[in-house]
Specification:
This protein is mainly β. The chain is 0% helix and 46% strand. It is built from no helices and eleven strands. Strands 2, 4, 5, 6, 9, 10 and 11 form a seven-stranded mixed β-sheet that branches. A four-stranded antiparallel β-sheet has the order 1-3-8-7, with no helix packed on it. The protein is globular. The termini are far apart. The mean pLDDT is 94.
């Protein structure tokens, strides 16, 4: 069983930055594909970034390319989402997720059903 605990959400003005962290219990995070999803009110949950086991492969949703950066520190069992140049449309609850199939799965993994473990969610609010 893997538990994911997010932190780092909050309220910022447009143009500001936040860094979300996702700390994992257990020893095998380095083997998992990791993703960040977000869900705005009235919208479906969408994947905004994903990173493969070694960190060498990353994927970003078009609206966040160049502004968000996903990274992982396998030694700390933690991964991150650095969010810069935030916009009001980035306002959502953000979730981290882990796919235990790791390199056995294709990449990127973009659907909720592709992920096995989820964090509790952290709210990001961007005001104009």
């Amino acid at each position: 069983q893997v538990q994911l605990v997010e932190s780092g959400g909050g309220s910022v003005q447009a143009g500001g930055s936040l860094r979300l962290s996702c700390a994992a219990s257990g020893r095998w995070l380095s083997r998992y594909t990791l993703g960040w999803f977000r869900q705005a009110p009235g919208k479906e949950r969408e994947c905004v970034a994903a990173i493969r086991t070694s960190g060498g492969n990353t994927w970003y949703e078009d609206s966040v390319k160049g502004r968000f950066s996903i990274s992982r520190d396998n030694a700390k069992n933690t991964f991150y989402l650095q969010m810069n140049s935030l916009k009001p449309e980035d306002t959502a609850t953000y979730y981290c997720a882990a796919d235990i199939r790791g390199i056995l799965s294709s990449f990127p993994r973009l659907d909720e059903g592709d992920y096995d473990y989820w964090g509790q969610g952290t709210q990001v609010t961007v005001s104009s």
